[in-house]
From TrEMBL:
Its EC number(s): 2.7.7.65
Catalytic reaction(s) noted: 2 GTP = 3',3'-c-di-GMP + 2 diphosphate
Protein name: diguanylate cyclase
Boundaries of every GGDEF domain copy: 170-302
Family matches, as InterPro entries: Diguanylate_Cyclase, FHA_dom, GGDEF_dom, Nucleotide_cyclase, Rev_trsase/Diguanyl_cyclase, SMAD_FHA_dom_sf
Cofactor: Mg(2+)
Alphabetical list of CDD domains matching this protein: FHA (cd00060), GGDEF (cd01949)
Organism encoding this protein: Thermomonas brevis
SMART domains: FHA, GGDEF
Amino acid sequence: MATDPAQQDTTQRTLLSEGPLHPAPRSACVVVIHGEGLGRRTDIRDGALLVGRSHEADLSIQHKSVSRQHCRIWRDAAGQYRIRDLGATNATRLNEARLPAEADAPLNDGDRITVGETILKFIAQDSVEARYHEEIYQLAVHDPLTELHNRRHFCEMADKEIGRALRHGRPLALCIIDVDLFKPVNDRYGHISGDEVLRQIGALVRGHARNDDLAARIGGEEFALLLPECELEPALRLAERLREAVAAASFAPGGEPQRITISIGIATLSPERDSRPALMAAADAALYRAKSEGRNRVCVEG
Ligand SMILES: Nc1nc2c(ncn2[C@@H]2O[C@H](COP(=O)(O)OP(=O)(O)OP(=O)(O)O)[C@@H](O)[C@H]2O)c(=O)[nH]1
């Protein structure tokens, strides 16, 4: 019997390629490779990069071993990156050698900069390693299911935003969002279908966030939306819009159309609620009320 030669040919042919796609050139950066803020990458743009414990530093490292203004990194007119210790209590070290106070030193690709108990790595422009660190960092701060921020990163970023709002006397609101009666969805259609519902809700949460808002999945079926510069009224309006959008969305776990709703608890920053744990506890209390009052609603802790 004649056989089709195309079916017999199982040879795997190597694709002719010029190598990985080359992304646009990027600036030099420093990456935290040890200590507080592990994995964080900070680009060194046109101006100088200030590293220190100060909240105003470009790379702010909240650790007591770091001086408020610890060191500065910049690119000189000849294009050479340089570093200067700013008289830090624990002198900046470059590849383990102490930098003399107020003296400049050139930086080369791969140099290690020790700032208190944190170690940074200097990565020169457009290096493959910079992309590697970026990808690892993105994996570390995102939830793989929804691609929103994960809880650990949310807490770290929320602490910073809350600190900034308190220092500048700016408003800030937090919404905690929980899927209603999600256990029966999982039990009936299975975890994989449940995951698809969570992914869809994650996309709706992200779609309702502004650029400066912080959207995260902070628990199994729990999401958070941190709204800097946002008073209670606009936060309430946004939460209502999100609640309505979820209630109106079409979900079909296991191929069966299913109505899914969410409950939302909101709390705003105030003198009595001036920390992330206090703000989260207040939003949680409001969420609990939303659940006990019948779900598919927004409640405010005020
Ligand atoms: N598919 C899926 N399910 C999850 C995930 N994380 C948590 N869950 C499920 O989410 C459900 C949460 O159920 P409960 O906390 O009992 O609450 P609920 O049924 O949503 O009811 P209420 O919150 O009271 O409205 C449990 O069945 C968990 O197994 C996840 O990552 N994927």
